[in-house]
Each structure stands twice: as structure tokens, then as C-alpha cells.
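Q: What structure does this chain adopt?
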Amino acid sequence: MACVTRSTRGTSSIFAGMWRIAIALVLVAPWQASADDPPSPPKPQSIEALQDTRLPPALERAIKKLSPNARLLQPSEVDAESCNPVPKTPGLVMADFNGDGLEDAAVLLKMRVATELLHFDDKDYRTADMLLAIFLNDGKGGYRVRRVSEFGNNIPWAYAFIDIQKPGTVRGLGGQRTLKHPGVMLAICEKSAALFYLQGTKVRELQLSD
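A:
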């Protein structure tokens, strides 16, 4: 009887090919699953990182000179419910406030934030000392500072912000004013609002609501 022998070389090659396919499927499957998943949201920036991107270097230096611990009020720190709508930069307004052709800045700063954590109406917060200041561009890489208004507030859930007031006629509780240059509106949400504007070298105030 003839003896039949089978070659194992072809069988080994088939098994090797099958193993390669199986390994490839294992590696590709997770990638395909992750490709179908929605992209992960970007990691939120810290308050300090947001501040760095918003403030020109010269203005940041001027603020640190005014107070090393001062920090710009951030959108995430404003009570969106009572202050709706919240400006994109509730702590920063940039315009030519005195008409000299140079860009100035108005900032709403946290000068001091208490360490004690308080709780009210299902909200945790800390008290803070706020300062509204106008930084007038001196044209030499620096600023002249005008301290405008100081008041207490909460962080987060701040109920205040600043915004631009365009030139033109503005009516307030004390009459009306005609602005030649932009001004700064300070809103204390659901309570009051005031306009601050430059007249010569002095900052004037017009109460808008009470």
C-alpha cells in the first residue's frame, strides 16, 4: 500500500496568516469604536490662563504694579442668571476713552478674595473686594491708572460686570450727557448701573438706574 505523507509547510502558512488577521482585527476594533465616539471636550483653561490670553502684556504689568494679587473677573465667575446676558469679557473693556488716539482699558479686578467658604441658597462662594479701574495708555508702553469704584461682591456668583458705552447721548437719573468718546458702564445686576466717562483728565459718573 502506498504511504501518503502530508506537507505541514502549507498548513503552517495558513495558520500563520490566520493569526496575523486575528491580531489585526483586535488592534483595529478599538480604533473603530473610538472613531464612532464623540470627541472629548477640550480641557478647560484655568482662570490664570484665560487672563493671560486676554490681557496685553503691558496692561498685565500695569495691573500687577497696582496690586500683585489683583485678578481679572472672569466670565465663569459671573452669576449668569441675575446678570443675563453676560458680556464675553465682563472684567475687561478696551477703547479710546479720552480721545487721544490710543487704546485704553477698563478692568474689573478682584483685589482680595476671602479664604472662608460661605454657603447660601445652595451656592458656595467667597466674599471679594472689587475695583473698577481705568488704565489710560501713555503712549510709552505704560498706563496711568484711575481708581474709579470699589465695592464688595461674591466669587463665584459675582453680580457685577462692565461693558462699553458707545459715544452719543446718554440719559441717566441725573439728566443726560453727550459722550464724545466711549465710556464704561458698571452694572450691579438686578440693582443698579452707572456710567463712567473721561472729561479732560477727570473721571465723571452718571447714575443710569437705581
